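3.2 Worked example (two chains)
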Amino acid sequence: MKLFCSTVAVATLAILVQPAAAQMAGMDEHAGHAGHAAAANASVEAVGVVRAIDAKAAKITLAHEAIPALKWPAMTMAFKVADASLLKGVSVGTKVRFKLQGQTIIGLTAL
């Protein structure tokens, strides 16, 4: 009887954990937008306001306007930049036009 109860408990736990594991898969940065990404070689331009800059990690956080080409609503998110030198000349609070290729910024201009 103990073996049966243990087997049922393990099977139940495996069934309950499986959906949670599936939800956790792909929870990396921007995972919810993966289906909306433009073709790998296509680029998209958008406008946003700088909320944070991490030059060492070559990342910038932008509160961007909606990006219809990607079907993204307006939101705040962090992006990698292709080259850390793109971060020069911008600071928190600066309104910028940026160019995305995939989910990496390849162009950044203060407005």
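3.2.1 Second chain
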Amino acid sequence: MAGTPGDADEQTNLLCPPASRRCRCLQPVPKPATIRASLLPTGKTPMALTFQHVHLKTRDVQATVQYYIDNFGATRKAEIPGRGWQLDLHGTQLNITGIIAEQKHEQQYGIEHMAVVTDDYPGTLAKLRENGVAVLEELKGEKGNRVAFVAATDGAQMEVIEKI
């Protein structure tokens, strides 16, 4: 019986605002928060990391953008000129592009990487190298800051962005 406790559709819909009960969203996503990463040896001050985005690389940028808008309520945030779009997916930034010619590291279609921002770029990379993490490529960001792509498990990658 619809609307009874335990009815999965009703419970899912109750998480949505009243005006959009049909949205079938799963649950609200909290805003990204700054965390203190324990990347440094005990006794040292840890660096601050904040989650920034998930990057989806696709063969069809427009179809992928529309998929997240139509099915999950994403909104267009900004165009990435000549590459794709930034979407807001309930507080999480999705970057949707194709393969980027200027990046020389191996790129994959699908969820390619997640990105963090650090206030101690040299310290973060030093610790990652100390832990045996492969640095795939270092670049200059659009604002002149340093950016690194590093290997993660199962072919995934992480992007480390210098906070400026």
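3.3 Remarks
Residues 125 and 135 are 8 Å apart (CA to CA).
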